[in-house]
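Query form — protein 6-phospho-beta-glucosidase

QUESTION: What is the three-dimensional structure of this chain?
INPUT:
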Amino acid sequence: MSVTRFPQDFLWGGALAANQAEGGYREGGKGLTTVDMIPHGPSRMAVKLGQEKRFTLRGDEYYPSHDAIGFYHHYQEDIALMAEMGFSVFRTSIAWSRLYPKGDELTPNQEGIAFYRAVFEECRKYGIEPLVTLCHFDVPLHLVVEYGSWRNRQMVEFFTRYARTCFEAFDGLVKYWLTFNEINIMLHSPFSGAGLVFEEGEDQEQVKYQAAHHELIASALATRIAHEVNPRNQVGCMLAGGNFYPYSCKPEDVWAALQKERENLLFIDVQARGAYPSYAASLFRDKGIALVKEAGDDEILKHTVDFVSFSYYASRCASADMNAGNTSAANVVKSLRNPHIEVSEWGWGIDPLGLRITMNTLYDRYQKPLFLVENGLGAVDVPNEQGEIEDDYRIAYLREHIRAMGDAIADGIPLMGYTSWGCIDLVAASTGEMSKRYGFVYVDRDDAGKGTLARRRKKSFWWYRQVIASKGEDLA
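ANSWER: The structure tokens for 6-phospho-beta-glucosidase are given below.
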């Protein structure tokens, strides 16, 4: 059971995010952040969508990010497990509010810098390259309350100051960077994606696309700064990927899928090509958006990324007849159920060929190296009588997606690396659950925050170790 040989310098590893793994939410001088306000339970979605304003913590709710899986205190153990699997890359993120607790300070929190230096030095000890996201669904709460988050142009100044601090403080330890995680998710989950909360009667589309413009300016400036600090730095953008298939060959469905695809790729078009695409004018016109730009913005946007990174969990389906009543509630990106593929326990479509299609689409469009930085299966893992977790379902999912990656490489796609999502069990961003597990390593923690946090290797741990050792050849 082999695939096309992966490049010798291919980066194999896994991914976590600060807001879903670190915990220690008020330790080391860290300030409150947007994710710290998002509870587990019935109010979660309303808060994530920016429909329910939540600027203070409530005593009757549980907030999974506050402790998460304790990576803040367990990072040495966790990185050692990654090294045991043979990782050559570890994707993680920096909590903005750990370096700038309020977000608008002029000088950073040195305790926060020391923590991340220790993490990256631990990676270097094992020969693991950090791939670091600057903003992974994580905005300092003070910037939301005082400035309205990314709707405010001042955020560009705050973010670029923070970015420069990261590039300078971790120079020589980190050379692979991502600016904003899944930047297109802002359109679907505005508070978790970009710290946006809406007032009654406000034009939400106008706010979201204006906020996105500010993020795009900040991303381009950060890319320029990274290259100024060290020309060896490589900076990528990050897309919540997955092609939209037409639900049928009816022309109206094909047109609907094209429109959804353009909406999904708009921000990456800007980051990878250096300008708004021609279709943006009609998209903004149809949505009644009047984008406010400053003089020089078009020049700033020409600082394009070095590579395009993306997540891929599932493909999507679109038709001319899509509405709130017939789309899946399994994911914030709305999609019709595809009758030709199986779904996970959480209703996410399982479509390995869709990964090959997505990779070909992205490279045809951008002609830049790709990096698959999230891919995995969320599932309930139940230990057997011996305490072992035989997650053959996860192995089956990953095997077929890695095979699809190999096929795409054979198609001529330059792929830099692969970081499986949630390489160690973490809090699910979508639901706030621990029971929706992705990792090769089981963490003793439940949906109510109870458990010892003890780590335990799953069957997939040993399987992935074998995959990496064989450079993707042995998928048995």
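ADDITIONAL NOTE: Residues 236 and 305 are 5 Å apart (CA to CA).
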